[in-house]
Design a protein that fits this description.
elongated, 88 residues
Amino acid sequence: MKTTIVNFESSSFRDPCHYARVARRLAELRTAGGSKIIAVVSAMSGMTDKRKAAMLGVNGETSPSNLDAALTTGEMLTKSSAQKSRAT
């Protein structure tokens, strides 16, 4: 089976109407069929910088692995919101 990878950058998640647009695009690809779809999402615009600043504000010596773990939550939140938009 063919695989289609679709990447959505942070600008795709500026506000709720953008989430719906992403969800519609994924639904179109799914309806078209013929391939497995992998969606790669970035954090909402500005979230990575805000999370990094918050982490470093609490502990300026945060380990790189802890910082990475905290920053990935932005992508997880974006993915979760996009899934919710698709369901509604």
